[in-house]
Amino acid sequence: MDQHDAILSRLLTLHPKKIDLSLGRTERLLAALGRPELRLPPIIHVAGTNGKGSTIAFLRAMLEAAGKRVHVYTSPHLLRFNERIRLGADGGGTLVDDERLNAALERCEQANAGQPITFFEITTAAAFLLFAEAPADWLLLETGLGGRYDATNVISQPKCAIITSISLDHLEFLGDTVEKIAHEKAGILKKGAPGVIGFQSEPVARALEREARRVGATPIVAGRDFHICNENGRLVYEDERGLLDLPLPRLAGRHQHENAAGAIAALRAVAPEIPPAAIEAGLTRAEWPARLQRLTRGRIVDLAPPGAEVWLDGGHNEDGGRVLAEAMAEFHDKAPRPLALICGAQTTKDVRALLKHFVGLAREVVAVPVEGEHKSWPPEDVASLARAEGMPGAAAGGVEEALALLSTRRFDAPPRVLIAGSLYLAASVLAANGSVIE
Asked: What torsion, rounded to 10 degrees, do the Cα atoms 51, 424, 361, 223 define?
């Protein structure tokens, strides 16, 4: 076990609950550390149900294309904890190295002195320590869960907040309606700072705008204050400052057009000096693993049916299923292939709501367990749900077995294989494939 893995294991024991939303414990620890959250670069704070990480990936790529040094905090990680903390440097940021990570975690552990604190809270404090001690021009900060009582929300004066697409997820913590969830996400909106409200259902957009005006934030609303459309293979963005004729984003799927638009709206509000050329470059350079990521080499690709396309996505809720199915339908329109869905999910997720979007689209669903997760849906149960929706459903012991099963099927063309349903499943696939995240 690596040194920081040992420290992280100890930190997991400091609170009986994995999730317990509160700001008090984080504020106490940060005070003991000398208030590093007051020594951070200008912050763009991002909350939402889906699209947070992709929006941050676009922001980072655009800012770095303009020569800015950018710190980034995201979660969860896929292959190793270091992915959560990226330190800005001239020429592009790098994941925190083990030595600096170990030192920050140990300082937090000592300052906390064994008091109750959640894993996310104490590791967020470690990230703030690292960000405060390394120079940068910007910090891109993703909430872990919710917004109002998320550990990252100890930040009192962000330059800008962004709220990406909101849908039902984490109902046990955030509420059982999208309006209640929107109220929690809106907690990151702050007085005097622009609040970019991404593409939402009308009730959610109204609720977010009301909250923005209540706290004194300036709402910038998608579909009203900024617009996007796809024209002749180009992404056309328009707001009160004018029109940008841009290339389509590197990240696949039309939902990424909306995420890119939110990033552009934020930069045009708080960093108007960023030139259109940097925005254009950022769209074509942005990377975000396990979000409609095409795997082109590695063990998993080798095990797929000959000639198959293999796509990987961590989408795990109903809205994630919707945008994934829309993307697969768009791929099919451009280059027809039979679609095979390999799906694994946790029992805390409504897997049937995800699956229903693939009716009439997926030629076969192969259900697999999520390795290492005791709350994984049994594969036969997921396969039964797929069959109940009218899709052929089968169960397999893992992704490799699922690929072997698909290789025995008679498709009329090499299939397009989508592996989805859980970020934990996506992480195991990347590890099995020999992929590296840098």
From this structure: -10
**Residues 265-320: pLDDT tens digits?**
999 999 999 999 999 999 999 999 999 999 999 999 999 999 999 999 998 888 88
Q: Give the whole-angstrom CA distance, residue 209 versus residue 292.
A: 30
CA distance 51 to 165: 7
Residues recorded for the chain:
438
Residue range 293-433, CATH number: 3.90.190.20
Say how far apart CA 194 and CA 258 lie, in whole Å.
Answer: 18
- Residue 237: strand pairing partners: 228, 244
Evaluate whether 181 touches 166 at the Cβ level (below 8 Å).
yes
Please tell me the distance from the alpha carbon of residue 359 to that of residue 325, in angstroms, as a whole number. Answer: 9
Cα separation, 192 vs 160, whole angstroms: 9
Quote the pTM value: 0.94
**Amino acid, res. 339:** L
* Contact partners, residue 51, CB within 8 Å, separation at least 6: 164, 165, 198, 255, 258, 259, 262
Which segments of the chain belong to CATH 3.90.190.20? 293-433
Query: In the structure encoding, which two tokens stand for residue 28, read together?
Result: 């106490």
Angle, CA 256 vertex, CA 255 and CA 259 arms, to 5°: 100
Question: How far apart are the C-alpha atoms of 2 and 348, rounded to whole Å?
Answer: 30
CA distance 171 to 179: 12
Task: Locate CATH 3.40.1190.10 in the chain.
Answer: 3-285
Instruction: Give which of 281, 428, 218, 245 is closest to 342, Cα–Cα.
Output: 428
Instruction: Read off the tokens for 208.
Output: 């977010």
* Rounded CA separation 227/196 (Å): 13
Please check whether residue 106 is in contact with residue 7, taking contact to mean a CB–CB distance below 8 angstroms: yes
Mean local confidence (pLDDT), 163-171? 73
Residue that is written with structure tokens 């960000």 in the block? 131
- Confidence band of 103 (pLDDT split at 50, 70, 90): very high
pLDDT above 70: percentage of residues in the chain: 97
pLDDT tens sequence across 204-258: 999 999 999 999 999 999 999 999 999 999 999 999 999 999 999 999 999 999 9
- Which homologous superfamily is 3-285 in? Mur-like, catalytic domain (3.40.1190.10)
